[in-house]
Write a sequence for this structure.
C-alpha cells in the first residue's frame, strides 16, 4: 500500500506541469523506489521523454515517464544531493548521499551519472542503513550446505569465497556469515566498495580509488591491525589475490567474492591469478556458487503441471545427465506459479531467494587442484562427493513451490 501512495505522490507532482517542484519530485521518486523494494532507480533519457525504471527482484520495470524539459533539472538535483559537479556534462561522475525516508528511516544512495546520446542519465542504488535479519536458512541454504558452511567458519584460518555474477547476493551471504562469527572475542575488519549496510561491532572500511585505498592497499593496512577475521569486497586482481592467500596462510579467516560462473571455476580462476596450486589447495576452505531467483507470490500462487511441450523445452535447455538426476521431480509435474495480483504488480513473483552450490575443498579436490585439474573435473569430483549443483538446488525449490522452472532456467543461462 505504501508504494501505491508514493506512486500517487509522483504522479501528482508530474500533473503540476510547469509548477512541478523538482526537489519534491526527486524525493518522491526515491521514496517510491524504497517502498517498491527496488534495488536501483534508473533515470534514462530518450529523444522526447525521460523513462524512470525500477529494478525490483532483479528485473527492471517501467515506473514513470518524465517530460523531457525537466530532465536537466532532475539530474542537477541528484548531482547537488551527491556533491557532484553541476557544470560537468561530458564526463561520468560517481557519488553518494544519505536521505531520510518517511516511514522507513535513513538510507544511503550510490549515484552514477553518465553522458548518453540524449543527455545525462542517472542510476541510483539504494543501500539500506540497517542490515536485514538474514540467516543461512532464510537465505535458502539446505541443511547439508549449512552444515558445510558452519564447519568451514569454525576454522581459525583459510578462505571462504562466494562466487557469481553482479547482483547474485554474494555480499549478503558474507554479511550473514560475519554476523554468525561476530563475538566479542574476535576482531573483524572489512574493506568494501560500497559498504552495503553497517554491522555493529565490526570495523568497516570504504575503498576509495581516488585516495589510493584499493582492496589491495586496504588489505595490507588491515593486516597491521591485528584482526582475526577479514572480509575483502572482491578479489579482482593478482595483487589482492596474493595478499588474501598470504593472510589466510598466516592465521586469518578471510572472506571474499570472485566473479566466476560457478563454485568449481573458482579454483582454476585463482590459478589464472598466478596463485600456486599448493597455496590454493591449502587455503581455500569452501567456494559458494550462487544466483538469486524470484519467489512465487504467496498471495496468487496456484498449482501448475508441466506440459509435454515444457518438458521438451526443458530437455533442450538442460543436459540429459542433469535431467535424469532430477527425473523424479520433473515427472511428478507438480509445480506452482503466481497467477499475478495487485500485491506482486501482476508479475506472479514477490521477493527473492538464493539457489546455491557449496563446494567443500576436501582431500580429493585438493589433489585435483595440485595437478591443475580444470573446472569440469573439479565439478565431477565435488558432485561425486555429494555437492548439490545450483540447477539441482533450483529444481528442488521449484518442486517445493518456492519458485518456477522458468525462473531457474532464466538465471542459470544469464
Amino acid at each position: 500500500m505504501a508504494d501505491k501512495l508514493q506512486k500517487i505522490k509522483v504522479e501528482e507532482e508530474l500533473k503540476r506541469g510547469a509548477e512541478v517542484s523538482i526537489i519534491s519530485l526527486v524525493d518522491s521518486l526515491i521514496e517510491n523506489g524504497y517502498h517498491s523494494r527496488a534495488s536501483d532507480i534508473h533515470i534514462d533519457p530518450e529523444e522526447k521523454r525521460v523513462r524512470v525504471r525500477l529494478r525490483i527482484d532483479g528485473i527492471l520495470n517501467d515506473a514513470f515517464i518524465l517530460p523531457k524539459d525537466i530532465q536537466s533539472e532532475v539530474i542537477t538535483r541528484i548531482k547537488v544531493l551527491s556533491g557532484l559537479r553541476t557544470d560537468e556534462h561530458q564526463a561520468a561522475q560517481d557519488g553518494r548521499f544519505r536521505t531520510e525516508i518517511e516511514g522507513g528511516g535513513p538510507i544511503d544512495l550510490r549515484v552514477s551519472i553518465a553522458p548518453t546520446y540524449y543527455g545525462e542519465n542517472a542510476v541510483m542504488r539504494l543501500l539500506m542503513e540497517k542490515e536485514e535479519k538474514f540467516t543461512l536458512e532464510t537465505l535458502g541454504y539446505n541443511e547439508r550446505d549449512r552444515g558445510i558452511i558452519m564447519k568451514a567458519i569454525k576454522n581459525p584460518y583459510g578462505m571462504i569465497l562466494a562466487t557469481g555474477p553482479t547482483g547474485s547476493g554474494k555480499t549478503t551471504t558474507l554479511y550473514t556469515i560475519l554476523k554468525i562469527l561476530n563475538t566479542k572475542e574476535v576482531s573483524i575488519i572489512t574493506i568494501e566498495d560500497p559498504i552495503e549496510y553497517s554491522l555493529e561491532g565490526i570495523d568497516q572500511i570504504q575503498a576509495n580509488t581516488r585516495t589510493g585505498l584499493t582492496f589491495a592497499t586496504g588489505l595490507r593496512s588491515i593486516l597491521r591491525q591485528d584482526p582475526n577475521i577479514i572480509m575483502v569486497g572482491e578479489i579482482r586482481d593478482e595483487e589482492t589475490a596474493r595478499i588474501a592467500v598470504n593472510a589466510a596462510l598466516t592465521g586469518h579467516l578471510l572472506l571474499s567474492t570472485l566473479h566466476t560462473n560457478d563454485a568449481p571455476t573458482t579454483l582454476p580462476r585463482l590459478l589464472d591469478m598466478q596463485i600456486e596450486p599448493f597455496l590454493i589447495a591449502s587455503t581455500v576452505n569452501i567456494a559458494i556458487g550462487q544466483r538469486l531467483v524470484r519467489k512465487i507470490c504467496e498471495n496468487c500462487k496456484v498449482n501448475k503441471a508441466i506440459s509435454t511441450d515444457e518438458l521438451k523445452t526443458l530437455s533442450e535447455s538442460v543436459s540429459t545427465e542433469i535431467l535424469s538426476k532430477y527425473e523424479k521431480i520433473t515427472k511428478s509435474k507438480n509445480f506452482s506459479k503466481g497467477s499475478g495480483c495487485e500485491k506482486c504488480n501482476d508479475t506472479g513473483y514477490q521477493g527473492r531467494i538464493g539457489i546455491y552450490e557449496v563446494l567443500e575443498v576436501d582431500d580429493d579436490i585438493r589433489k585435483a587442484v595440485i595437478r591443475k585439474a580444470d573446472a569440469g573435473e573439479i565439478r565431477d569430483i565435488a558432485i561425486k562427493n555429494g555437492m548439490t549443483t545450483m540447477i539441482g538446488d533450483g529444481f528442488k525449490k521449484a518442486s517445493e513451490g518456492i519458485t518456477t522452472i522458468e525462473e531457474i532456467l532464466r538465471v542459470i543461462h544469464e
